[in-house]
Amino acid sequence: MGSERSLLIGEVFLMVDRLLVTRCKQGSRDALLRIYEKYRDSLLIVAIALSHDVNLAEDAVHDVFVAFAQNIASFKLTGSLKAYLARCVANRVRDLMRTNRSRAKALNSERACSAGVDLNEPSRLITCNEELRLLSSALAMLPDEQREVIVLHIHGQMRFRIIAKSLGISVNTVKGRYRYGIQKLRSILDSEI
Amino acid sequence: MSSAEKIKKLFAKSEVTVNSKVDDRIVRAALTALDESEKTRSLSAEPNIWRIIMKSRMTKLAAAVVIIIAVVIGVNQFGGSIDITTIAFADISEAMKNVPWMHTVTRGFERGTEVTAETWFSFEPKIFIGKTPDGPVVFTDYKNHSDYRYDPASNTITISYLSDDKPAIDLSSPWSALEKMAEVFTEQGAEITQKPGNFISEEWRQLQITTVCRSSEPLTSCFSGKERRCKWKRCDGRRY
Hints:
Chain A is mostly helical. Helices cover 73% and strands 2% of the residues of chain A. Chain A has one domain. Chain A has nine helices and one strand, in the order H-H-H-H-H-E-H-H-H-H. The termini of chain B are far apart. Chain B has one domain. In chain B, strand 6 and strand 7 form a beta hairpin. Strand 1 of chain A pairs antiparallel with strand 1 of chain B.
């Protein structure tokens, strides 16, 4: 009964997203705003958890929404919009980290979760709560591959199979990365949680 | 509680506080991108007689002559024969206001073979139907925001919602539609001659517009360009 209800709720969520995407395709600015408002926080959390850098996270979410709006005419929603956007954000974060070579700097910098204090860049004002700071710091200690799988699976609600497909690796590799990552996180967070 | 559950809980409790300036920056950029996308889309996908005609093999006309024959149904307001070469567009637009339907046939030649595109216009309610020789058939009902496209290649009908009820061409009267046709061809460097077509009945009138591209180039070059990018090249080579 409970699982049926969950399925129904999931279907309703999917239908709402499909409707928003359809309206967006028809040029509805309101629909785009609603998608942004609905998934902004979640996508920022994905980006921060992956990059440990709020500035980079903001840029990644910005780029993903702009690209989403630009290509909306040819966009086809085949599954969860949240998972799709999370995957886009993860890809964008990876690209930005690679091109900016900012990861090493970000991991030890003050930018992590506290860009709001940077008065020289007033447009970059995102702050994280204590849980996200803790999580982001712990995830930063994991290899990129393990971090990405954990974030996409737990927060992006993506199945291992989908993650494997999007990364071009086997499902077993994804599961292995997840398992090792969780073990490491446990040892890192044991004293904190 | 397992490690994974603890981490899930941590994710669930994670929150970000976003300043409105961040929202402004992202939303503005995304909306601008959407508007740009919409502009491109409306130029490339909105029902438009010109797009239908241009998308067809008419775009590849080797001959520089296109003849548009408009059959206007219910023109008894004219009260007798007219010679439209001697009458200004505006003079008879009022008389044609109540015409319910107009059927146009656009004919041209492609490497010596005649090709034809047909369109039907209803002015109240505003409906547009277009049929190209071997392309899709389009039925657009502006009042009900619905657009139906039949693709003979895949044998499918695609139904879509029109967000904007404003027709791509002016459907206020048959004449405004014909005037628009004339205007577009003139912009392409064509010279236009008009004459009444065959008299069919009291309620059916046929008009004929013949366009001849002024430049030495055939019409094919007038309408060349990358359609997907919504840029058409004029006869003079400029893009618009």
